[in-house]
Amino acid sequence: MIEVSFRTLLDGVMRSLAERFPEIPVQREQSEQKAEGPYFYVEMLKALQERELNRRYHRACSFQVQFVSGLTTQGPNMSVHDMAEHLYELFRELDIDGARYMGTQMKHEVRDEVLFFDFSFQFLVWLPAGAEPKMQTLKEEESLKNDSKKGS
What we know:
Elements: H1 6-20, E1 26-27, E2 39-53, E3 56-68, H2 78-92, E4 93-96, E5 99-111, E6 114-126
């Protein structure tokens, strides 16, 4: 069984961006001062876990990748929309530590020259089996309930 944590997924998303776009820095924490683009900022927005059956749980994590291009143009910023196309492709199916995650609920918008790309992963996890009480020795005895014979 592959172990997965929320931290594993966040690290995997950041690593995938860094591998796909090696020339663009990837940040986990947004700095107070406005950094010069281009760069990515990655944040896990929400995570949830719901019990399904016994030790099986359904998990969902939603992420936001912000892309600051550093370009300022007077018209539509085509570079951020081009980047959105690449992100749709990258997060459609992502391999993280040997497990495949399918991106769902993908959407993007551009505000103030910044691309906001949202997506989610949904998957199942199984908790390890706990120590269950073991059966002790059972002593079995036999006896007849009624020993009398029926007469004719």
